[in-house]
Amino acid sequence: MGDRGNFKKNLRKDAREDIKLTTSSSTDLHCSFHGALPPLLGWNSPEIWRDRDDIQPCRAILDEDLTKTEPTAAIIDGKMIAEKIRQEVTEEVTRLKSQTGGKVPGLAVVLVGSRKDSETYVRSKKKACKEVGIASFGEDLPESSSEEDVLAVVRKFNEDPSVHGILIQLPLPKHMNEEKVLAAVSVEKDVDGFHPLNIGKLAMQGRTPLFVPCTPKGCIELLLRSNVDIKGKHAVVIGRSNVVGTPAAMLLQRHQATVTVVHSYTPNPAEVTRRADIVIAAVGVAHLVGGDWIKPGAVVIDVGINPIEDPSAKKGYRLVGDVCFKEACMKASAITPVPGGVGPMTIAMLLSNTLDSAKRAYGLIN
Ligand SMILES: Nc1nc(=O)c2c([nH]1)NC[C@@H]1CN(c3ccc(C(=O)N[C@@H](CCC(=O)O)C(=O)O)cc3)C=[N+]21
């Protein structure tokens, strides 16, 4: 272990920052014999996309007059497709009710703290439940609550037979261990698909997770329902979060795509992304992906929902994706807008996961 000191000394400054941010989970358990090498599981490095000199700002923001040429892309209407799925769920809920003598699916939403965006999302999730006949249960805890308080709520819902799905609204306050809280949700009620057992099964061939995370599932549904062929295609996923990028890459592989994951340490992400037939952008940086990142004819799924200042908007801001829509429209064969793309699908998938869970609880599916 003596070599570790020398290793640190020789690191570039940014890499040294990474070490500071490395959590206790990367103990040297896995690499005690590596000496000067990095730990087997890698450093837990932060994703920093800003201040990179190999990424140019998206031109259409600066050049409003770009749209002299006609856009080529078909718009993938996530709002309409999500509406269709919600109708399907509504019908299924009615059927479940008649088959079980009046039982309905139930979703419990746990919100900790008072982030405005989280409150908005939770409200729209509950509203969506109501519209399709799913009962919703809520528990709003103050920011100051302890991890044990949240765990107690999770246990209560785990045991409640009228609750078939439990959703812990993310992000949790910083003082809570997200890993521990998410693992406390019963696998059978993990409608977000974040339980390690469900993620693990998603990653393994021949295994079937009980639930697939809503946003990546929504992306794949958009592709399937728009008749986009995935098999044998090159898909580039930009971003590697637990919630979207990583499970999206796993799902695309299950659909026989060749998958490349582009992240904040990827040199020349534009060049790599330009090789993609299918692009899923899930980074959280407004307009990161310019038109020059897109191969002509590619299909683009934009997961980002980023507020940017807009004095002409009522609230003073508007929502834009990770993709520069105006530019990408000139290159792509099909593209999802923001809003009205992946966002509504996320909620539709949550409803469909909750329905599946209830069907399973009443022995109607495996
Ligand atoms: N445990 C957990 N599960 C989640 O699924 C989860 C979460 N935590 N934390 C926050 C994110 C975000 N999220 C969205 C859901 C719907 C829209 C949505 O419907 N957006 C619309 C409207 C946007 C607007 O105008 O406000 C659209 O894109 O068209 C967006 C974002 C779910 N999340």
TrEMBL record:
The pathway entry for this protein reads as:
One-carbon metabolism; tetrahydrofolate interconversion
Q: Which part of the chain is the Tetrahydrofolate dehydrogenase/cyclohydrolase catalytic domain?
A: 76-192
UniProt family annotation: Belongs to the tetrahydrofolate dehydrogenase/cyclohydrolase family.
Alphabetical list of InterPro entries matching this protein: Aminoacid_DH-like_N_sf (IPR046346), NAD(P)-bd_dom_sf (IPR036291), THF_DH/CycHdrlase (IPR000672), THF_DH/CycHdrlase_cat_dom (IPR020630), THF_DH/CycHdrlase_CS (IPR020867), THF_DH/CycHdrlase_NAD-bd_dom (IPR020631)
Q: Give the protein's function.
A: Catalyzes the oxidation of 5,10-methylenetetrahydrofolate to 5,10-methenyltetrahydrofolate and then the hydrolysis of 5,10-methenyltetrahydrofolate to 10-formyltetrahydrofolate.
List the Gene Ontology MF annotations in alphabetical order.
methenyltetrahydrofolate cyclohydrolase activity; methylenetetrahydrofolate dehydrogenase (NADP+) activity
Query: Does this entry carry the keyword NADP?
Result: yes
Q: How the protein assembles, per its UniProt entry?
A: Homodimer.
Q: Where do the Tetrahydrofolate dehydrogenase/cyclohydrolase NAD(P)-binding domain residues begin and end? A: 213-361
Q: Keyword annotations for this protein?
A: Hydrolase, Multifunctional enzyme, NADP, One-carbon metabolism, Oxidoreductase, Photorespiration
Record field: catalytic activity: (6R)-5,10-methylene-5,6,7,8-tetrahydrofolate + NADP(+) = (6R)-5,10-methenyltetrahydrofolate + NADPH; (6R)-5,10-methenyltetrahydrofolate + H2O = (6R)-10-formyltetrahydrofolate + H(+)
Domain of life of the source = Eukaryota
Q: GO CC terms on record?
A: cytosol
Q: Does the keyword Hydrolase apply?
A: yes
> Which protein, by its recorded name, is this?
Methenyltetrahydrofolate cyclohydrolase
Record organism:
Adiantum capillus-veneris (Maidenhair fern)
The biological processes this protein is annotated with in GO are: photorespiration; tetrahydrofolate interconversion
Per its UniProt record, what PANTHER family does this chain match? C-1-TETRAHYDROFOLATE SYNTHASE, CYTOPLASMIC (PTHR48099:SF5), C-1-TETRAHYDROFOLATE SYNTHASE, CYTOPLASMIC-RELATED (PTHR48099)
